[in-house]
Amino acid sequence: MKGKQFLLANKIAHGHELIAKEDYKSALPLLLEAEKLDENKIDIHLGLCICYAYFGQWFFALQYAKKAQALQPEHFNANIQVAQALLRMGRVQEAFDLMQQLKNEYPDSVEVNILYTECLSYLGLYDEAKDIYKKLLLITKEISAYSNTAYQYIETGDFKEAMEYIQMWLELFVAQTPKAKSLAQGFMSIDAANESLLILKKTLDNMQIPFMLTAGTLLGIYRDGSILPHDKDYDIWMPFSTPKAELIKLLAKHGFIHDRGGNDWNISFRDTRHEAVFDIFFVKPENNKLVWAVSKMKNKILYFHNSITGISSIEYLGVSFNIPKNPEIILAEFYGADWIVPKPNYNTLILGENIDDKYGLGLILGYNHCLSNCVKGFYKKAHGLCLQILSVHEDELLERVKAHIEKHFPYEQYYEHIPYRPTRTNNLKIFG
């Protein structure tokens, strides 16, 4: 028995050491072995929750967080992990109810307040979230507080204020040594995402709701015969006349949860069974073009304009999907005449050939993604976003951020330099 307990304690300790080093791939099987030896150790369940959360497998993360919570109902980290998993699975009200309890018990906890305000964001209560973040920034230099504060202002269409918070943090970033680099960033599991796509297609077909593959999803399937390996969501067009509220209710019945945001132009859904995300964009003909958009409050809209080519189809996963007729024309409008050449560091919201972005929505989202990737230690991705933004937009501070990353991680294999366009925008011109 003593030998078994020693082996168990060693596996738990080693598993958490690996988690501290962000080696979740090695920690996961070790903690699963520990679970077989004893199912009543809270440290095992919390460790497994953290590992599954890292890999985006929130169903299993929630399972283990609840096991930990069952062992110690008042355990702080167990309750935080339960709330986080609920939130990521789209069970926002449950997460919010739990976070309200924790906020009453730990009113000054930075961690509690950050997760609580995330719940507020999912519920669309951005102004309340802003007030909490403003107070948080008086007592903490927690990087995620700056990123999340900027996010609230982006959602409410206050881009100038969002940029001010982003620049505050970027100045802090270049003034200190970055935290250790995280392991490679995870993307959608292709097999799981494909299964999710088939479920969505069957669901929409049964509802007689037409849809079409577009953007990065179209590029991967048409050019490579599969979704892009670095993709994080599916891109779908639907007619602008699609009843949005009814769509949200119908898809929820089939396991597709309405993610945060949503408006007349675009809605995101998450299939929590497979952790696949679907970005649905509503399109309409206008001035001999197919118009669609990404939109925030205060009518801050980034428009896309594509040629009207009609409808064709493509075989994928043994079934037929609608795509634009003459897809080469559409792909060239997104990715340029050389769309056939893979570009792993390419965001259409920043670099797209067919965008009209007078408010800088694509830029401000790019900045905030750069910031959040720095928060997570994904410096190659953050560096890539710097390259993208700087190719179209002048910013001395972002140049320093890029150089700072290169200085501290000189052996990283960064994405290729993107040539600067002859005419670039700047913060004063776009954000005031």
> What is the CA-atom radius of gyration, in angstroms?
23 Å
Number of domains: 3
The multimeric state of the shown protein is: single chain
- Give me the CATH architecture of the largest domain, please: 2-Layer Sandwich
Binned strand content: 5-15%
CATH topology of the largest domain: Beta Polymerase, domain 2
Strand count, sense and closure of the main sheet?
8 strands, mixed
CATH domain class name of the largest domain: Alpha Beta
Instruction: Round the mean pLDDT to the nearest integer and report it.
Output: 90
Q: What structural class results from the helix and strand content?
A: alpha+beta
Query: Helical segment tally?
Result: 19
Helix proportion range? 55-70%
Q: How widely separated are the two ends?
A: 69 Å
Enumerate the spans where pLDDT stays under 50 for 5 or more consecutive residues. none
Shape, principal axes of CA atoms = globular
Quick one: how many beta strands?
12
Task: Report what the structure shows.
It is built from 19 helices and 12 strands. It is of the alpha+beta class and about 425 residues long. It has 3 domains: about 1-140, Alpha Horseshoe (Serine Threonine Protein Phosphatase 5, Tetratricopeptide repeat); about 140-175 and about 360-430, no CATH class; about 190-350, Beta Polymerase, domain 2. The strands form 3 sheets. Strands 1, 2, 3, 4, 5, 6, 7 and 10 form an 8-stranded mixed sheet that branches. It has a two-stranded antiparallel sheet with strand order 8-9. It has a two-stranded parallel ribbon with strand order 11-12. β6 (about 290-295) and β7 (about 300-305) form a beta hairpin. α4 (about 60-70) packs antiparallel against α5 (about 75-90) and α9 packs antiparallel against α16 (about 360-375). The longest helix is centred in the first third of the chain and has 19 residues, at about 1-20. It starts with a helix and ends with a helix. The model has no long low-confidence stretch (mean pLDDT about 90).
